[in-house]
Amino acid sequence: MISNLHSLVECACARPESRLGLDFYREHILVVERFACRLAPILGARLDIVLPAALLHDLAAIEDFSRFAEHHELGAARATSILRELGLPEDHVLAASACVRRHVLPVAQGEGTAEEVCLSNADALAQMANPSYCLHYAREARALHFPAGRDWYLALVKHRWPRLHPAVADLARPHYLCALGACVDDRADSNP
Questions:
Q1: What distance in Å separates the CA atoms of residue 51 and residue 84, rounded to the nearest whole number?
Q2: Those residues with Cβ within 8 angstroms of residue 144's Cβ, 6 or more apart along the chain or in another chain
């Protein structure tokens, strides 16, 4: 089942009309999946729910970037449909879909299921851990020139950092500091 989801998402990214492209699959989706696997035992989350959600969490944005603002809601409906077609038990379908719906900001412990906390924190951690791709994404997908893209990424990281689960923040700290460093504007401090 997981290999089917990998193929589905990779193919969706590879379609010419996808604004995100194959780089998004490699540099974001797979990174979220790896972090979700790493965080699940720490957070007590079930991998059989988190992994399908990790692979499908941005599918709606991949398929139609113009609806990015609602991709979490559209993605939850899309995940429900896909996972039902694959024959997953209904409780797994609903739990994975809820993870997709809530992935946009880190869900705090006690404010959602362990799986929702896991996926949302893995997504935020993936954004912090890959600043070079996120800056590329800001340019290519969001059409932001470098200073605006850098400011967008810095705001994104700073907004997510205080919302991370404490155990995730410990893991994320070096990535967070690297992300902040990637956004430093050294021009003001340099001598011509």
A1: 15
A2: 138, 152
Tell me how far apart the alpha carbons of residues 29 and 60 are, in angstroms, rounded to a whole number: 13
Read off the pLDDT of residues 4-25 as tens digits, 9 standing for 90 and up: 999 999 999 999 999 999 999 9
Distance CA 100, CA 74 (A): 9
90 vs 181: CA distance, rounded Å: 44
Domains and CATH numbers, the chain: 2-185 (1.10.3210.10)
Query: Are 117 and 43 a contacting pair, CB within 8 Å?
Result: yes
Say how many C-beta atoms besides its own lie within 10 A of residue 141's C-beta: 17
In whole angstroms, how far apart are CA 52 and each of 35, 49, 119, 139? Answer: 13, 6, 10, 28
Given a contact cutoff of 8 angstroms between Cβ atoms, the answer to whether 137 and 25 are in contact is no
Q: What digits encode the pLDDT tens for the residues 46-59?
A: 999 999 999 999 99
Task: Specify the amino acid at residue 65.
Answer: F
- pLDDT tens per residue across span 124-167: 999 999 999 999 999 999 999 999 999 999 999 999 999 999 99
Q: How far is CA 92 from CA 57, 105, 106, in A?
A: 15, 22, 21
